[in-house]
Amino acid sequence: MTITIDIQHACDGPVPSDHELTHWASSALQALQVEDAEMTIRMVSTEESQALNHTYRQKDKPTNVLSFPFESDIPLDLPLLGDLVICAQVVEQEADEQNKPVANHWAHMVVHGTLHLLGYDHINDEEAAEMEQLETQILASFNMPDPYQPVNPPLSASEQGD
């Protein structure tokens, strides 16, 4: 079994360790019994995310994760899956807005993107349900809650009772 994950840091600010990123992606691959794989995880700024999202999805805004599956017109016997591009600032902002630990949201984005590289999608309800179930199972193996369930907002000072 050979899983190779190249990590690229192309942004400032806090991001998970290379070990965490590798663990999350490898666990997703192993859960789907992928034995040989090579992929890249690139952490980027909002500017790079927005440029890529505009170029490849015609959406002029940064996004949390973009997946670029490897494609070739020439048959190759290589385990290349492709690249994930994750915008650190968007992931952090979304975690804050959703009242989720940042590490949990990072893990979710890595797992979600890895499943996209393996051909999973969420274009229709059936595909979305299958993909969400896999994500939830993989994240549960990290003792992380279902990312699709609402999280209770933090209690205000008056609700906490002094």
Radius of gyration from the alpha-carbon trace, in angstroms: 17 Å
**CATH architecture call:** 3-Layer(aba) Sandwich
The total strand number stands at 4
Could you spell the SSE succession in H and E letters?
Answer: EHEHEEHHHH
Helix-and-strand structural type? alpha/beta
Proportion of residues in β-strands: 15-25%
What report would you give on this structure?
- The protein is an alpha/beta fold and 162 residues long.
- The chain contains six helices and four strands.
- It has a four-stranded mixed β-sheet with strand order 1-2-4-3.
- The longest helix is centred in the C-terminal third of the chain and has 16 residues, at 102-117.
- It is globular.
Q: Could you list some keywords that capture this structure?
A:
162 residues; alpha/beta; Collagenase (Catalytic Domain)
Quick description:
The protein has six helices and four strands, in the order E-H-E-H-E-E-H-H-H-H. The chain has 162 residues and is of the alpha/beta class. Strand 1 (2-10), helix 1 and strand 2 (36-44) form a beta-alpha-beta unit.
Question: What is the topological layout?
Answer:
Blueprint: E1 2-10, H1 18-31, E2 36-44, H2 46-57, E3 65-69, E4 80-87, H3 88-97, H4 102-117, H5 125-140, H6 157-160
Parallel strand pairs: 1-2, 2-4
Antiparallel strand pairs: 3-4
Helix pairs in contact: 1-4, 3-4, 4-5
